[in-house]
Amino acid sequence: MKLVRHYLEGISGVEIYPLISFVLFFTLFLIITWYVIRMDKDVVEEVSNYATDKADELPDSDPELIQ
Prior knowledge:
Shape: elongated
Strand content: under 5%
Number of helices: 5
Largest sheet: none
Distance between the termini: 55 Å
Number of strands: 0
Helix content: over 70%
Radius of gyration: 25 Å
């Protein structure tokens, strides 16, 4: 960690990068949370059934091929 700290101390203005990263992450988190809350409930229901719907569409496996 000393090696990294040594190089980071040599960069002027480096203390702003973690703040920028946090602001970008928090902004994206708020936008996604707002989008999910405002989603139409029918769309949520449709998307929640994707995994089970696809399993129903798969053809039955032939037991002779498994052996």
